[in-house]
Amino acid sequence: xxxxxxxxxxxxxxxxxxxxxxxxxxxxxxxxxxxxxxxxxxxxxxxxxxxxxxxxxxxxxxxxxxxxxxxxxxxxxxxxxxxxxxxxxxxxxxxxxxxxxxxxxxxxxxxxxxxxxxxxxxxxxxxxxxxxxxxxxxxxxxxxxxxxxxxxxxxxxxxxxxxxxxxxxxxxxxxxxxxxxxxxxxxxxxxxxxxxxxxxxxxxxxxxxxxxxxxxxxxxxx
Length: 222
Known about the structure:
Blueprint: H1 2-10, E1 19-20, H2 22-29, H3 33-45, E2 49-52, E3 56-59, H4 70-78, H5 82-107, H6 110-128, H7 132-149, H8 153-156, H9 159-171, H10 181-196, H11 199-220
C-alpha cells in the first residue's frame, strides 16, 4: 500500500492539494484502519502529506517533500518522470562527490584508504568478469567510503541517496551492458589519489566519473 500510494504521489498522478480520506484509502487498498494509519504516518514523515482534523490528508506541494529520502527517490525513479529525477540526482552528485573526494584525500584514515584500494581492485575484477550485480555492490560501497572519508557528516548522509541512484540506473537498464573500462580506471584513479593525498587529482577524477555517468544517462533518453 505504501509503495503504490507513495509512487502515485511521487509521480504526480495524485496532484498536490488532493485531499485523501482514511476510509477511502482503506477501501481502495483493502487495508485495515491500523495499516492505513501507518502508511499515512510514513508519508507524513517524508513530508508528502499533512493531516488536519476536519480537513483530511492533504498531498503537499513537491517543494515541501523530503527529497533526500531514499524511498521517495526509489518511487521517483520508478515513475513516469524518471529522466527529470535522474537529472536532479546527477546534479546533486556533481555538486557533492568531487568535493568529497578532495576532502577524503586530505582527511581519510589509513583504514579508509585501505578500503578504497581494496574496492578499486574488486571493481576491476568484477568488471572483467562482467558480474554487474557484484560490481554494483562494490560501486555503492566505494562511493559510501569516499563520502564518509571526507570527514563531513552531511556528505556521509548522502550515501543512501547515491546508492539509490546507482541501484535505480542498474534496475532500469540505464547502465552500460557491462562496466566500461574508462569508468573502472577513473575509480582506480580516485582511490589512488586519495591514498596518496593528492586532492586535486581525486577531485578531478571523481568529476570525470560524474561526467561519464551524466553522458551515459543522457544517451538513454535521446
